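Per your request, structure below.
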């Protein structure tokens, strides 16, 4: 499993009830079980990446599509955690959840 997948899993542990949108450059990725759950609902193509012995299910979209894809999921009853890249003082890229958007149940 690569470093991004490991970081996704670590952040997902803290946000197990939400679909995690994980920023990678100019895109958001959704991985593992979240990707399988939402690919069809969100209209995204499910892909497999990683090593043969440890495949990673992935789907994604450009950052500009954040509102569109979050809206699709919220309308279907999902909540979303948005994880953005931030640059620390030493110039390293880190990721942190900046926003949780919860589905309002009637």
């Amino acid at each position: 499993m690569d470093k991004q997948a490991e970081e996704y899993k670590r952040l997902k542990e803290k946000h197990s009830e939400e679909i995690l949108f994980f920023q990678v450059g100019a895109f958001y990725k959704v991985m593992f079980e979240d990707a399988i759950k939402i690919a069809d609902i969100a209209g995204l193509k499910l892909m497999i990446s990683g090593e043969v012995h440890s495949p990673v299910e992935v789907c994604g979209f450009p950052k500009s599509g954040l509102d569109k894809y979050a809206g699709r999921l919220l309308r279907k009853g999902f909540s979303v955690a948005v994880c953005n890249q931030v640059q620390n003082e030493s110039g390293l890229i880190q990721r942190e959840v900046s926003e949780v958007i919860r589905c309002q149940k009637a």
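The CA atoms of residues 25 and 85 lie 8 Å apart.

Regards,
D.
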